[in-house]
Amino acid sequence: MSLRTAQLARLREDAFDVLIIGGGINGAVSAAALAGQGVRVALLERGDFAGGTSSQSSNLVWGGIKYLESRDFGLVRRLCRSRNRLLDAYPTRIEEIRFLATLRRGFRYPRGFMWAGTWLYWLFGNAYTRPPRLLSRADIAAAEPCVALDDSGGGFEYSDAFLPGSDARFVFDFVRAALDAGAAAANYVEALHAEHGADGWVCRARDVDGDGAPFDIRARVLINAAGPYADAFNTQTSTRTTHRHVFSKGVHLIVDRITAQRRVLAFFASDGRLFFAIPMGSRTCIGTTDTRVERPEVTVTDADRDFILDNINRQLRLERPLTRADIVAERCGVRPLVVDGQGGDERDWLALSREHAVEVDPRAAHLTIFGGKLTDCLNIGEEVTARIAALGVAVPQRGARWYGEADTPQREAFMHQAQAIKLEASAAPGATEPAGARLWRRYGARAFSLLDAIRDDPAQAEELIPGAQYLRCELALAARDDMVVRLDDWLRRRTLIALTTHADELRAAPGVQEACRVLFGDEAERRFAEFVQEKFPSGH
Ligand SMILES: Cc1cc2nc3c(=O)[nH]c(=O)nc-3n(C[C@H](O)[C@H](O)[C@H](O)COP(=O)(O)OP(=O)(O)OC[C@H]3O[C@@H](n4cnc5c(N)ncnc54)[C@H](O)[C@@H]3O)c2cc1C
User: Coiled-coil stretches, from where to where (predicted)?
Assistant: First the structure.
């Protein structure tokens, strides 16, 4: 029986303390925190895990230096501390990274003022990272010759953190942790509506990828973690809240690597906002935009593409300017920003929008999570646990550690074994990090089984798709543990492959066919055709 089939059976049969709607970062981290502390949890996601906003981020784990400008010092301090906790807990999945910021002459603040701001930021972060550094034009030219310095008066360098892998994979790892701790969780299961009665909540759901027939799930408490759709789901359950969401659309474009250095290039775009070029495997991710929209369903427009390309071309001195033909992949999503009451005007937009809020209705045993950030995830997990306990749900292992990577001795043992089988000798040309470090970062202690597979069959250490930085042995693990239902789940959300490889190349790659056979068995052809239909609807 597949992992997902077993989970569907549990959702139908078991009764739960808590049912969570939405498998983005907020739902996933809540499930991991609660299950990891002994609560009986169920988690539903109507698409793939992290298929919403949580796979469209900038991959930054950051203190939000830009919120210093709006003097939101409390938020910056909290986010800096969250960043530090995550850096501590995930020493390989989250990395400190230097941001090289270039300032144009005549910028709205003098360079000295900005420089003081980076020190304040560093202090807000308890001096946890490397200190900032003032850069002259010559320093920038030496460090990053691709930066255009024509009207620049220099800049500065400071530290923050980022996810070198996939943001969606980071989210899925919380789902995986919840499953390991006994939660029931399934993707492609939609919550249609839910009702609260004397015996708790009954949620009507349907298997979107199966026959679609509705079935009921029972729980004492309901958590609405539907992100941009939280307000809509609250309407379905007649839940009234004082908070609500407004939406800001953000787009990133992924292009060939702009700089060989592992650092973020930061600029101020023509609209005055911070704008980044961020390393993403063998590529660079550029963005983002920030456009207020009324609805969460968004797509990338030519105006978005031109805004990003114009800005990056103005800031860089490349051999030739980047054009739409250089785009390898795109990401697009809405930030669910929380406002209080009927707010949403300019004041709310700037002052309140980047916080999160957990609103509880104790009579209905109902929680809604509004807003939030990947960076804030551990706090949200803890806050949700406290709120659930306050509702009278037993948390039998309160305080048990529910997050973080396996400890350093295990990592060292893994790296030692990887060296013993000469894993690095089979490294593909152009790899941006050693294979052993990459496998540990992706799978932690589960990566030991990959070394066993390579020992049995050296072909398992071969790269599956040229340039994708993915070994054949990873497939069997994905098929067993990663609840991959559709090909795009694997290409786009368990790995970075769809973001770093052109869709055309993927369609033609023998490695993708091989992946379909391992991941889907008899269903391989159907799943591949489904992917082609989705990516190339007009047949081209
Ligand atoms: C462009 C951009 C850049 C960003 N950059 C960063 C960054 O660098 N760092 C950072 O910390 N944060 C960043 N963020 C913010 C962060 O990504 C989001 O705040 C966060 O991902 C929101 O998570 P969520 O779980 O609330 O929502 P989502 O990820 O959207 O998850 C909600 C889920 O609920 C599901 N759902 C909805 N209705 C139902 C239903 N009826 N039944 C079942 N499931 C349902 C949806 O399918 C969805 O998957 C960025 C956001 C954007 C848009």
Answer: none
